[in-house]
Amino acid sequence: MRVFSASSRQFPDPVVMKADSIRFPFRTPVAVRVRGFAAAAQRLAALALPGQCALCGNLSQGLLCGGCDAQYWNEPRLRCATCALPLAASYLRRDRDDTRAHCAACLESPPAFNDTLALADYRAPLDALAVELKFRARLAAGETFARHLHALFEDSDLPAPDVIVPVPLSRPRLVARGYNQAWAIARPLARLMGVRSDASIVSRVRHTSAQSRLDQEARRRNVASAFAVSGDVRGRHIGVVDDVMTSGATLDALARTLKLAGARRVTNFVALRTPKD
Question: Which positions fall inside the Phosphoribosyltransferase domain (predicted)?
């Protein structure tokens, strides 16, 4: 199996083999004709052989059917502008100059990152998409998350980042999995936003235990010195992409590393956010 390192700048488009991946030694009329036929056959197959919606199981031309795609991304949640934690009305505080809502924890002990955009809570049925992306290589979910994150960004008043990076995996985990699920979201998101994406700017230099097995304090210690910056981020606004944000410890450690390297601002783009309620 071919493995793509998180330090690579170019990854293949993930969902299906594209017609232009068929290589011919010479650009002959026959080769051009075959390439065109392959592209047309791929489009016809997608129309003639619909798949199943990943959430409801109904027939669908895409990962999600039209009904599920319209229903599950419009969650009426008030979220902390810094960490995207869902907020109850009783917790709403506006002690900062920008008048946006922030949770008490971010006001009292601000994380290293500046903002977080999250699509929805990590719960059924959307958690199934994150599981499919992370553990079953259903990389089309990355495109879907990216499309909706772009729409969420367009509706926000946040400035566009200068470059978008994925939360990196350690080399052992990348080798074991074969791909980085955060990169499957980051690359199409950057393309939609019209900004550069780069998977080589940050790396995970220490293989850490799975965060899901640790409590909050252990999570912080686990990733405290896990990252390194190899690219020039001085004065830049960095967009960091991850599939799921739980305690925020990983994103905080990565943002802290980026800020120490000179980054001006760090904005998180996460597909799903684990709520406390």
Answer: 185-271
264/114 Cα distance (integer angstroms): 10
Type of residue numbered 224:
A
Cα–Cα distance, 119 to 1 (Å, whole number): 32
**What is the rounded radius of gyration, in angstroms, for the C-alpha atoms of the chain?**
20
User: Residue 189 maps to which CATH number?
Assistant: 3.40.50
- The one-letter code for the residue type at 154 is E
CA distance 47 to 144: 19
Strand-pair partners of 245: 273
- In a domain, residue 247? The reply is yes
CA separation for the pair 200, 5 (Å, rounded)? 9
pLDDT at 162 over 90: yes
Q: Which domain holds residue 267?
A: 19-24+29-51+116-273
Name the residue with tokens 């997608």. 46
Distance CA 218, CA 249 (A): 9
Question: At 191, phi and psi to the nearest 5?
Answer: -65, -45
Provide the pLDDT confidence category of residue 73 given band limits of 50, 70 and 90: confident
pLDDT at 6 over 70: no
Residue 203, beta-bridge partner list: 228
Q: Look at residue 73 and tell me if it is in a domain.
A: no
CA distance 86 to 75: 11
Asked if the structure places residue 59 within a domain, the reply is no
Q: What does the pLDDT look like over 26-39, one tens digit per residue? A: 445 565 566 666 66
Whole-number Å distance between alpha carbons of 80 and 8 = 34
As a whole number of angstroms, the distance between CA 43 and CA 59 comes to: 17
Is there a domain that residue 92 lies in? no
